[in-house]
Structure formats: C-alpha cells, structure tokens
C-alpha cells in the first residue's frame, strides 16, 4: 500500500488552506492542516493581494504538516485564475500584485478591441485567437492596462507567472507557467496551448515575459533549501497540479468518463464564482460560443473546459458583510434559514450585472438594482438572501440552455462540486430551476483535484507521464467515487420557475 502524503495548497479568492491527502484502504483520505483568510488590501486606490501574508500562511501550513506526517512526498498549489506576478531579471517582484476586481481594468476590453481593428473586428480576432469569454478581469486586459498606464513593470519585468506559478517559484526556486491557469489569461491558443504571440504583440504587451507552458503533473524539482529549513520539509517534490482551481475541481467530478464527445452531464464548480460547463475533448471556438460568451479554458490531459463564469455566491457572501456593517452579525446557517422562509421571487436579480461586481455595499447595490428595474425591494432581510440565490439558479437555467445548444445534446445531470454544495437550498433551487437531477459533492473538489494530479505526477496513479493522462484521469475519478459520498437532488417544483425565468430574461434587455 502506498501511504505517501501529498500536500495541496488551495488558494481561493476569500480563503486558503493546506490539505494533506493520502490513499489509505483504497480511499483518498483528507486532513485539513491549516486554514487562513485571503483578504485583499487597498493600497493607494488599487486593490491588491497580500501575497506576503499568503506566503507566510503557506509556510506555516507546511511547517505544521511536516510535524504531523513523516512521509510527505510532494506539494502543489492551485489558485483562482487570471491574476499574475511579474518579476525582473534579479528575481524581484516587478509590479504590484493586483486583484482582478481592481478598477484599473475598466474599459480595457473596449480598448483592446479598438487596437485590434475596432469593436467588431477586434472582438472577432481575439475570440478566434483565444476562444475565451470576454471578461475585463482576464490577464490580457490587466496587462493592457499596465501598458496603457505606462507602468514601469512593462520595461523592467522579464518574467510572468500566474498566482500558482508564483508560489511554486517561491517553493522550488524555479519559474514555470502551468497550462490550465495560463489558459485563463486570454493569451493562449486553445487548440495548440501556445502563446498567441501576434495578438499579444499587437496589444503592446512584451512577449519576452511569456515563457514555455508546462502541463499538470510536471515535477519542478524539490522544495528549495531555504524553504526546507523553515518548514522542515525535506526531499519533498514540487509537482504542478492543474493550478487553476476550477480545472482541479473539474478533475474531481465523480463521473465515470473523461472528455466525452457528446456530454450528457455538466458541472458547476460552486464558490465565490460559479463556473458552469462541460468537459470536452477539444475546444469549440465557434460563432455561437462567442455569441453566448462561453470560454474554452484548458483542462487536464488536453481536455477543454467549455464554461461560463457566473456570479456565484459572491453576492450572498457580500450580503453578510453588508449586515456586519449594519451591526448585524449573521451566520451562513441563519442566512439560509431566512432565505428559505422568505417569499419566493419577490425581486429578481441578475448576479452577473456589473452593478454587483465590486460595490462598496451589496445591500445598497441590490436596492439600487431593484429601483432601476422597477421591482419592489425585499420586505425583510431574508428576501435579499433569497434573491441572490434565486438569481443564481435562474442564471444556471439560462446557462444550461446555452450549453445544450453548444454541445448539441441534452444534459441530464448537473454535478455541483465545491463549497457551494453546502448551501442545500441553492442546490435544490438548481434542480428545480433547471428541471434536472443535481448531484453534489465532493465539497473539497479543488483540493482533491490538486492532490490527484500530484499523485499522477509522482506515479502513485497512472503511468506518471504528463502526456498520457486519460487512464490516470479515469482512475482518479474512480478513486473520488469510492472515497466521497454524493447527494442527489431531484426537481420537485420545476413549473414554478417558468414565469420568473421569463421575467429574468427580460431583465437582461
Ligand atoms: C474561480 C476562478 C474562476 C476565475 C475566477 C477569477 O475561483 O478561478 O475560474 O475565472 O476565479 O480568477
């Protein structure tokens, strides 16, 4: 039996943790070693990540793990997408490490289109080159903003890393750019996995920043001596998982299959964002995909994650902050209970409306949206919570319809993975709004996917060759099915959602 321990560092946009995993008795066993908050900080009007604080927490987690486990074999980091770090030739950080919600990206999508030939031609060119949905948070627009603002980093930087790569660099001393997270940059060709040099140059972004792209399961080397010393981790390999959290989460979906030609299941990776889509064998860079604004992100084993970013539990989470600001400390449980007892469909909100992207106060933003769209404000606190969940479920319904058109098949089952599966009200709403069976779990999909890919990279699962991942993925998913329970929700009042769904579509006009 192989009982070697692997450490997943899983950084989400609001919290991070270090989770140990090992296969024991034919099951994947998890143990949370360390958990910490990830709070961005406002520095001179720019929203930035506290990477020093995060690194200190990661080191602390690794130190605790080293005291707890003897045979630690590898460590790997996954994070949210799109954000990056620039370093100079002396291995110093060359620019502020910004949060994707920073306001400096405003207007950059339009600016990029203009540079690339105008609103229509620029959009067409960029989509054709990258197959990605347009979101101003994408790295390419952040870099364009740096170019447009004459940021010094554009002259002094000589290396670009996504967030996971950055922490792998700190761990191993080696620079790398892992493929799945790089695919969120909107600078890669989804067909070849290579940088779209011509487009990048046209935007004035220095291409010398962009090094070779590495596949998940690649071993970078061992933890570097300075890190080994402070953590006590000796001879531990740094192995690239799918560093994009969503790609790791999708790997941990408990299905029997991989990248089907005609998928009849889809996933929702549910957290601060909801990433809803299908896993496919190859990208769909089609007109319809562009029209629906879906993305072709890179998955493990050369698969494509055809998905859409939906506003997730962000609004729900921010409502809690609004309440705190009003001196009202509410727990998640009580928010769900209050949402449950609130009257349905009082106020419909579109979770993807720009008003909700980064408001100072979410409750005020919802009130503003209500009056703007001529709807009544909720009569009680629970009404706000309920509206944020119903809005999301309605969004899922619309997204499902688009997905079915894109993959030209009926989606029978929706798999929800991630922290959002704990919100059972939302899971039931999803089954009802979409009129489909919903299967939830595992809740720790991202960390699990991270661990699985490290096991693949160290030869614990599959052949150990990053080029031959199909069998390894099938084995990984089997292990997930055998290790973690799932929960099934069947639709029971689907018809109730028809009228609100029509109103909801009207909201977008
Ligand atoms: C989810 C996620 C999404 C990405 C968003 C911003 O955590 O990684 O996939 O679009 O965060 O990075």
Describe this structure as you would to a colleague.
With 509 residues, the protein is α/β, with parallel strands linked by helices. Helices cover 39% and strands 19% of the residues. The protein is built from 19 helices and 19 strands. It has helices at 51-68, 108-115, 119-130, 139-148, 153-156, 163-172, 179-182, 197-202, 225-231, 245-251, 287-291, 314-325, 332-341, 362-372, 381-407, 424-434, 445-457, 470-483, 498-507, and strands at 5-11, 15-24, 27-37, 41-43, 46-48, 72-78, 84-88, 157-162, 177-178, 213-214, 219-222, 237-239, 265-270, 274-280, 295-298, 304-310, 413-417, 437-440, 487-489. It has a seven-stranded mixed beta sheet, with helices on both faces. A hairpin with a 3-residue loop joins strand 13 and strand 14. The longest helix is centred in the C-terminal third of the chain and has 27 residues, at 381-407.
SSE blueprint and pairings:
Blueprint: E1 5-11, E2 15-24, E3 27-37, E4 41-43, E5 46-48, H1 51-68, E6 72-78, E7 84-88, H2 108-115, H3 119-130, H4 139-148, H5 153-156, E8 157-162, H6 163-172, E9 177-178, H7 179-182, H8 197-202, E10 213-214, E11 219-222, H9 225-231, E12 237-239, H10 245-251, E13 265-270, E14 274-280, H11 287-291, E15 295-298, E16 304-310, H12 314-325, H13 332-341, H14 362-372, H15 381-407, E17 413-417, H16 424-434, E18 437-440, H17 445-457, H18 470-483, E19 487-489, H19 498-507
Parallel strand pairs: 1-6, 6-12, 9-10, 13-17, 17-18
Antiparallel strand pairs: 1-2, 2-3, 4-5, 7-8, 11-12, 13-14, 14-16, 15-16, 18-19
Helix pairs in contact: 2-3, 10-17, 13-15, 15-16, 15-19
